[in-house]
Amino acid sequence: MTSVAPRALRHLWLGTLRYADAWALQQRLAHARAAGDLDADCLLLLEHPPVYTMGRNGSPEHVPGGPERLRALGADYLEVDRGGSVTFHGPGQLVAYPIVRLAEALPIPGHPGQGDVLRYVRALEEGMLAAAAAAGVAASLRPPFTGIWVGEEKLGAIGVKLARGVTQHGVAINVTTDLGWFAEVVACGIPGAGVTSLERLGAEGWTPERLAPELAAGIASALGLATEPADRRLVELVSQTHQRTRIGGGCALNWHWQRASFRSIGAISRNQPLVRVMRSNYHRGKTGACVRLQRSSGWTVSPRSEGA
């Protein structure tokens, strides 16, 4: 009797990306997944520049100083369509956005075409617990609150949305995050709750990029999916969403898929570094220049050689 191979969760490391850009990208990919233009679930892995986001369940008292105070500190402030209240995203924090057709991954028995949102949240928590364990930190759950905790301090948060049967938004784990940012808000709308990070808990040498494949593997396993690097179509959709992005002195940079180059520099796997591969002035038969992209107030590009 032949066994059926698990469906794929294709994942991609994006470096540092503005929240608004990542939000637009999620919407584009979710629409493509719902319409069948994307044939597998995917997972975006990234960091954000400093930004506070307010979910649908938030309240003004969760931001005591008001949005203008947060903007004065140098952070963006956005009201978004996920669940939950206010939270902070910024450098040193690993963010993961799964784009998953939920009824296929976690169907509700007896209800064709419906996905189990509660099981999905539990699966995301399981994935975060696995990632924390890989860094040597024993986190746990703290009902009735979501996310992962160490004692009464929150290490990883969850906020999700389901539309047209496809998930958006996701999870965030504090790796080396400056926790002082959280002091400006009632994080997640939970009065008195503390926050922590892997670094504060003694996990040395970890970065969001290093932790990303562990989180991807943990989430995929919890959803019954198999991790795979991004395929051509996923990279094309991401590229199309950001095709007008400009970097440095105004030079447009587009993404191109080149399988051999992805493999040679590590692609995305649990045992190799995650790399966002881009091509400038790509021509058939030529590999072009390979770079990593980081974004803060502007774009900065650092070269990375083939085989590194």
Biggest β-sheet strands, sense, barrel: 9 strands, mixed
Using the coordinates shown, work out and report the CATH topology of the largest domain: BirA Bifunctional Protein, domain 2
Class inferred from helices and paired strands: alpha+beta
**CA-to-CA gap between the ends?**
43 Å
Fraction in helix: 25-40%
**Any idea what the radius of gyration is?**
19 Å
In total, how many beta strands? 19
Number of domains: 2
Output the helix-strand order: EHEEHEEEHEEHEEEEEHEHEEHEEE
Number of helical segments with 4 or more residues: 7
Shape: globular
The named CATH superfamily of the largest domain: Bira Bifunctional Protein, Domain 2
Mean pLDDT: 81
Q: What is the correct CATH architecture of the largest domain?
A: 2-Layer Sandwich
CATH class of the largest domain: Alpha Beta
Model description:
The chain is α+β, with helices and mostly antiparallel strands and 308 residues long. The protein folds into two domains: 8-229, Bira Bifunctional Protein, Domain 2 (BirA Bifunctional Protein, domain 2, 2-Layer Sandwich), CATH 3.30.930.10; 232-303, no CATH class. Helices cover 26% and strands 31% of the residues. It has seven helices and 19 strands. Strand 11 (153-163) and strand 12 (166-174) form a beta hairpin. Helix 1 (19-35) crosses helix 6 (232-241) and helix 4 (117-134) crosses helix 5. The radius of gyration is 19 Å and the shape is globular. Mean pLDDT is 81; it is low at 244-308.
